[in-house]
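Render Alpha-glucosidase family protein in 3D.
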Amino acid sequence: MSKAQSWWRGAVIYQIYPRSFLDTNGDGIGDLPGIVEKLDYVASLGVDAIWISPFFKSPMADFGYDIADYRAVDPMFGTLADFDRLLEKAHSLGLKVMIDQVLSHTSIEHEWFKQSRESREGNKADWYVWADAKPDGTPPNNWLSIFGGVAWQWEPRRCQYFLHNFLASQPDLNFHSPAVQQAQLDNVKFWLDRGVDGFRLDAINFCFHDAQLRDNPPKPEELRTGRGFSADNPYAFQYHHYNNTQPENLPFLEQIRQLLDRYPDVAALGEISSEDSLATMAEYVMPSRLHMGYSFELLTDDCTAAYVRETVERLEAQMVDGWPCWAISNHDVRRAVTRWSAATGDGDADDALARQLVALVCSLRGSVCLYQGEELGLTEAEVPYELLQDPYGIAFWPNFKGRDGCRTPMPWDGGEQAGFTEGEPWLPVADAHHPRSVAKQENDPDSVLNAVRAFLRWRREQPALVLGSIRFLDTPEPVLAFVREHDGRRVLAAFNLSAAPVECALAIDAAVSPIAAPGMVPGGCDGARLQLPARGALFAELA
C-alpha cells in the first residue's frame, strides 16, 4: 500500500478514556457498551480513528495501565463480546480502532509476576527486573519512580528488589529475556487477529533497562524540567540514561513492526518520553520500526509561537523518513484550553481558543490525537483533594493535583450527572462542563462542537494539510505561520495565539488568496500585511 493510501498518515485519532465516556450499567464507570452507544457521535466529528485507553483486566491501581491479563476485558468495562461488537460497529461507520498496549510493565496481580516473585528458580524467574540489595540493604542503584520515591520494591519471597518505573504495583518486565519479548508479541498478535487496526504503545521506550544497573547521573537544578512530571518531582533530579531508552529496544521495535506488517494496513503509535524525546522519536519512527510517534513536547505549559515552531522544526530536522503525531491534550495533562490560557495570561479560556487549538494541531504535519472533550472546549475540572482518585496526584498534592482534572466524565446532556451515568460517577462531573454538554452544543451553529466538526470535514478535503510538507515563516510573537505543500499546492496557515488582535508583515513572495476555513475567527491579508483578530486564523492559497 502506498504512503498516500495508508489510513494513518494525516489521520485524526480520537482518544476515548473509557472510564469517563459513558456508563450504561449505573456503576458510575464508563464501559465498552457506552462507547458502542456513542460511536455515531464520534463518527459525526469527522475523525478517522479511535484510540481506546486500557480496558483490560486490572486491579486499577493506575486505572488500567496496570494490566493483570492482556487478553481479557475487565468486567467493569464489559466482555470480549462487547469489544467485538464495538469493533464491528466502528468499522461499519468507517472508523479505525486503535487500542493501548502497555508492554513495559504489568500489574503485581498478573500471573507472570505471581510466579516470578515466588522463587529465583522456575521458568518465569527472570521475567521481571530483579536485583540483590547492596551490602547495607539499600536498593541496587539510585533509579527513581516517576510516581514518587525509589524505583525499587523489596520482595521478601525472593529476598530481592524488583524494579518499577511507575507505581510499586507496576513491576517492570525484563525484556532482556527473549521469552518476555515473545510473550508480549503474542499478546499483540491476539488483538491483531481480533481485527484491531493499530496500537498506541504506552511508555514504549521503557521496555529495556541497563543490564549493568548503572546509577543515573545527577541533573543540575537549572535543567530540571520534565515532560509528564514537574521540576519538583525527584524524578527530575536525574538524567535518565539507564532506566529507559536503551539501544536494545530498537531490535524489539523491529520485531513489532515485522509482526504488524503481516496484517493489512495496521499502525503502531508510540508514546515516547525520554531525555530528548524528539531525538528518540526520530530514532523510533521509521519504515522498519514504528509507524508514528508522539511525545509530551506540546503537552507542556509553553505555548508560545516560538516554542511550537522550534519543537516542530527540531523534529522535522531529525525525522528523515518518519511520520509524527501531535497532541495538545490527553489523559495525563491539564486540558489544553486551561493550560494555554493560563500560560498566556489571557484569563478564562473561551470558545475561540478551543476552536483555534483544534485547528492548529490539525494543521501541523503529521497525524493528530484529539482527546475526548476537546471538541466541546472542556476546561480542566477542579477536583477537591477528598475526591481525588489518581495516586500520582495524591502523592504530590498540592503542588501537582494529578490527572483527575482532565479525566472527569463527558457531559452528554443537561441531566444531574450530565447523562454520563444514572449512578454516582467515579469522578464528579464538573459544574463548568454542564453548559458545554453535547446536547447543549448540538443545535447551536456557533458552538465549539459544530466548529470542530466543520473544520475536520474541511481538513479532510485539503491534501496539503493532511499529507503536505511544512515550512515555517518568520513572524513575531504571538503569530505562528507556516506553509503546507503537497503536489504543487501551497496552503498558508497563520494563527494569532493571543487574545488581542495583531498585525504583522508577512515575508512571502507569492499572491495570497484567503480560503474560507470553517469554524475559525477569520483573519485577512492586505498585500504583505497579515491581520489576525484575537485567537484568529488565516488559511490561504499561495500562487
